[in-house]
Amino acid sequence: MRNDITYFIKTSFYFCILVLLSCGKVSKTQVDLTQYQFKETRDMVNFVNEAAELFSEKGEDAFVEFAKKDSKWYSGTRYIFIYDLSGVCVFHPVLKELVGKNQIGLTDINGKPIVQFIQSIATNTKKPYGWIHYLWAEPGEIFPSWKNAYIVRVNGHDGKTYAIGSGTYNIRTEVTFVSDIVDSAAKLIQSSGKESYPHFLDKASIFYFNDTYIFVLTLDGRLLVDPSYPTNIGRNVIDFKDYSGNLIIQEMQKKLKEKDNVYVSYMWPAPGQVNPSRKIIYARKVLSDADTVIVGSSLFLMESIWKKF
Fold it and tell me: What's the rounded Cα separation, in Å, for the pair 175 and 150?
């Protein structure tokens, strides 16, 4: 009995030591990298997670390494930035004039509140990591390009919580980027009904990036939201066909009778192109007020991944 008590005390002591030693450390964010089709996306996720780990261990001492030009942490247009949860820029190797200032009102050319989006990810207790998409000019350029930034919440060496991230220009659109905004749109529709529809037309919202946008239609094929033709709401697209003659909306309806969310592939020309390319729709059913509607979005697929859908 005495030996059991001694063993219990020793075990508890060592456990407490391990807990104390782990305080202030960031645990590696467990992200399923298989959800990403492209290497540059996976590389960005790993890059930010490694930076978060270094910042958690070294605090501001890590800034010296993050600021070294032509290094692992600062090369070309790729670099690390850090904000606290109030919106104050803590570290930025390019726009050094932002450091120490509250940037909560910073927006892109469309009015997207960039730092507010960063803040919303870092304060999400269920999923403290994710992507934001916005228009920003590359260093030395006048006109903005689409930039995609990966953000992670991190516990700093000082015990405070921060948002750390990095971005890249003109990254290829991942299927998961589209499914994420559709799932977010579905939640908004579920909570706000028709009052949520104007948000899907707003270029300053999370629901618009690259050529991606949200559509909403009734179960019988009547469009309720369509940013591509915002003045032609109410038209019925039940007989819409792709370039191969497939009835896309009817196929989507058929699949949604069996599942709550589906993928439908079809052929359609990319912007500025004559020949059709493979495209997919990700759609799901959701209750809007008293009616069930379909919310979805679409993207063009790269040749190497289209067979998955």
Answer: 15
3-class DSSP state of 293 = strand
DSSP state of 269: E
CATH of segment(s) 26-169 = 3.30.450.20
Torsion of CA 214, 217, 298, 137, to 10 degrees: -20
245 CB-near residues (< 8 Å, 6+ apart): none
With respect to CATH, is domain 175-308 assigned 3.30.450.20?
A: yes
Per residue in 150-192, pLDDT (tens digit) is 999 999 888 899 999 999 998 899 999 999 999 999 999 999 9
For residue 300 the two structure tokens come to: 């063009």
C-alpha torsion sign, points 24, 160, 107, 91: negative
Q: CB 187: neighbour CB atoms within 10 A?
A: 13
Cβ–Cβ under 8 Å, residues 166 and 81: yes
For 127, the 3-state DSSP assignment is coil
8-state DSSP, 197? G
Distance between CA atoms of residues 262 and 283, nearest Å? 6
* Whether 153 contacts 140, CB under 8 Å: no
Q: Where in the chain is the domain with CATH 3.30.450.20?
A: 26-169, 175-308
- What confidence tens digit (pLDDT) does each residue in 131-154 have? 999 999 887 888 999 999 999 999
Q: Give just the sign of the alpha carbon dihedral 4, 5, 9, 10.
A: negative
Other beta carbons within 10 Å of 192? 13
Tokens of 178: 């589209």
3-state SS of 139-187 is CCCCCCEEEEEEEEEEECCCCCEEEEEEEEECCCCCHHHHHHHHHHHHH
Q: Are 144 and 154 in contact (CB under 8 A)?
A: no
Q: How confident is the model at residue 74 (pLDDT cuts 50, 70, 90)?
A: very high
